[in-house]
Specification:
It is found in: Cytoplasm. Catalyzes the attachment of tyrosine to tRNA(Tyr) in a two-step reaction: tyrosine is first activated by ATP to form Tyr-AMP and then transferred to the acceptor end of tRNA(Tyr). Keywords: Aminoacyl-tRNA synthetase, ATP-binding, Cytoplasm, Ligase, Nucleotide-binding, Protein biosynthesis, RNA-binding. Homodimer. The protein is α/β, with parallel strands linked by helices. The strands form three sheets. The chain has a six-stranded mixed β-sheet, sandwiched between helices. The chain has three domains: 216 residues, Rossmann fold (3-Layer(aba) Sandwich), CATH 3.40.50.620; 78 residues, Tyrosyl-Transfer RNA Synthetase, CATH 1.10.240; 97 residues, Structural Genomics Hypothetical 15.5 Kd Protein In mrcA-pckA Intergenic Region, Chain A. The protein is 46% helix and 13% strand.
Length: 423
Amino acid sequence: MSVDTTLLDDLEWRGLLAESTDREALRTALSEGSVRFYVGFDPTAPSLHMGNLVQIVTAMRLQRAGHTPFALVGGATGMIGDPRDSGERTLNSLDTVQEWTARVRGQIEPFLSFDGDNAATMVNNHDWTEGLSVIDFLRDIGKHFPVNRMLARETVKRRLESGISYTEFSYVLLQSMDFLTLFRERGVTLQFGGSDQWGNLTGGVELIRRAEGATAHAFATPLITKADGTKYGKTEGGALWLDAEMMPPYAFHQFWLNVEDEKVGELLRVFTFLPREQIEELEARHAEKPFLREAQKVLADEVTTLVHGEAETANAKAAAEALFGGGDVTLLSGTTLEAALGEAGTVDVDGSAGIPDVVELMTLTGLAKSKGEARRTIAEGGAYLNNVRVDDPEHVPALGDLIASSWLVLRRGKKRFAGVRVR
């Protein structure tokens, strides 16, 4: 099959090549035919996150250009964890890692094609490490790693003062062995990962050179950071998870909708498959009228659709329109409504004793500091129940007012709202 010879140029334009081995050799390899490549994902949590998504979309770009992906889920390396600056990782049990391995594998599979000449393959490094003896590992792999080179790795150097276990120190040997194994058994000649993995990536290239006398390639994608240089991977509620149960699609959509103006162009390049001309047009219009947030809206729609599908994107947009635009909130699902109201704040009330009146609900949710303030707000026409103005301070919501059998939406003015869950 033919390959896209412009792939490397596109990766460079999108800012996805932070580092690489010989750039021209890599360009030649990618232009001559379908290259077998791999990217790894360690199951150190029950879900992948934003940083992993960079690797997923990069793998998709390579496959769409005609190259052949091997997606590795680290059932073995996930038992250890790559060294990080913040200190030693907590070692998870085998059962936990196996469960997370299955979950992570299930998250990756929908993004890749498993049909055609360059069909994707899922692999697990636990398959070739489980029966490996310590002596064989040290003789066949360890002898190729000078300790001075291992000590020179940036993360290791930063950890030497605070301390690093031999377990984490040896991680580079395991990841490098993965590359060598896939090179020998599957003909894989290219590996990529995040720039914080650069030492591991080059370790694999060097191991193939030393053990097989052969050439392999590697490149690193950049770490995605906010405008102030801090990591993007965290939100107020935790990591930007891809799992819909850990981060509902509404919250996921809202995250992308609210990225900084300075970063939206970069994120469009990295995370969407929009063509260069369209992205540059969006950037130009955004520079003229950033207050319209057109670029953020396109970004949010594209990435949410990629991860969660068109239906969930539509639900997220409908929820935002209903809450912020005064639309019909009664059409929202309970899951979408819970996610949307979770950011605004919610309270639970016991419905067995009856639902409180609107004045009490406004004070319970904090929309009013006192019952007197709640009554004044109602009298001034500033109180809403399910986006319908409330005129009577003694109004008691009926069971028929509950959305998805559980929820009430209270709003004060145009933008302050809160949720009440009736149990």
